[in-house]
Design a protein that fits this description.
The structure holds two protein chains of two kinds.
Chain A: H1 13-24, H2 31-37, E1 41-51, E2 54-60, H3 65-74, E3 77-81, H4 86-98, E4 103-107, E5 126-134, E6 137-141, E7 149-152, H5 153-160, E8 172-177, H6 184-201, H7 208-244, H8 253-267, H9 270-294, H10 307-331
Chain B: E1 15-20, E2 26-31, H1 37-60, H2 67-73, H3 78-85, H4 89-95, H5 98-102, H6 106-116
Antiparallel strand pairs in B: 1-2
The chains are: A alpha+beta, B mainly alpha.
Amino acid sequence: MLLDLEHRISSHCESGATMNMLRYFKLDVDEPLVFGIGSGLYFGHLPFIKMNYMPVTTYRALPGVVFTRACKQLGLGYEKRNFKNPKDAMDKLDRVLDKGIPVGLQVGVYHLPYFPAEYRMHYNMHNIVVYGKENGEYTVSDSVIEEPCKISYDDLMKVRYAKGIFAPKGKMYYITSVPEQINYKKAIVGGIKKTVYEMIEIPFPLIGVKGIRYLSKKLRKYPEKLGNLKASRYLGQLILLQEEIGTGGAGYRYVYGAFLKKASEILNLPELSEISKEMGITANKWREFSYTASRNCKGRGEQEYSYDFLADMLLDIADREEKIYKKLKVVIPKSTKKL
Amino acid sequence: MADIGEFDEKEGYKIIHYSVDDNNNYNSGLKANWGAKEIIVKQSWGIVSERIEAAKQNVRAGKISPIAVHMENCIMDVSLLAKFVELPKWRVKRHLKPSIYKGLSNEIRIKYANAFGLTVEKLDIID
């Protein structure tokens, strides 16, 4: 059995998985739209969470929220659950597939047989869509791989029960109902509001624009606290998470800019197009930062650029982003009732 | 800076990258590189192989058991390995001592071998 799902690739796995499922139900969405409606944009510098023995910086919301938020904003019904018993998890997957519904799964990357070697880490926040089963093999749409992939029953069970931080525990999610009329305008405004709240209004110093400033402060002290070599490694991981792990570049800022541009067309708000331009400039600033900072990551980590210089770049980015979200707050309609 | 075309001829795994031009037009496409990928990926894997090498030296010096090498090979740390073998962390830490490792039961050795994707005989071999 193979469902008629079109495999489209994307930069962010969860937005891509959600997009492919929505498109299966005839919603005309692309990756930026899903990412924006699902309020995927975020920033958090979390030195107490370690990956590879180094602090973690995140540019997007927690795994799983893009799908749920997008469904809620668009008024779709969905189901999402974990399973204690791997056998139950696989049985339920088969049953939902038989009903003709593609199923999203959270999986670990390390044991995915088709995954490129250079990205094989114990990273458990990857998302795929299962949409077929033939001869005990599942057909999988992995939005960061060009072609649809096949995976055996045993391998799929293994990656669904990968171990470590954010272990998927067999998590599966799928769409159960679609309303006749979908109000994209309302969904977009709702999605932007949530992002604005998360980026400038959460009263916690490590999150949002405040988080960028906090990172800048930390970064400034890296070389004296850690020495050049370790400082350059912390910096390297920052760039890795910003550019390499399926962000579309510049920690999702390009994707969000593209979303804002699309939103200005759908909502017929020319001001949003202006803001999207500023988002594009900010994204380029992020890219410039990672490009410049990467010069410090060669060899023994000699400072080609001083950490003060890099920290100032981040402060400039934080100021730019703050302006963007403040403008967004003014521009988008307060009430969604009339949309 | 938005132009990332120059690295495109390089072979390798490609991911979708977005970019924006001066007229606020967004594009996306498969690219192998955004400008400095090699430096960053090389550095990141360099750290892993450095740790593997350090573990090997410690095994040869008799300071640590071969489990440490396999653990680094599989990019794990003690807490992750403990989840894979379903043992408490303090026991995994104990098993990293060469003296304790020598006396491990076959049952436990199988657990470790499975976690690393090795046969039990290969558990003692580090090269």
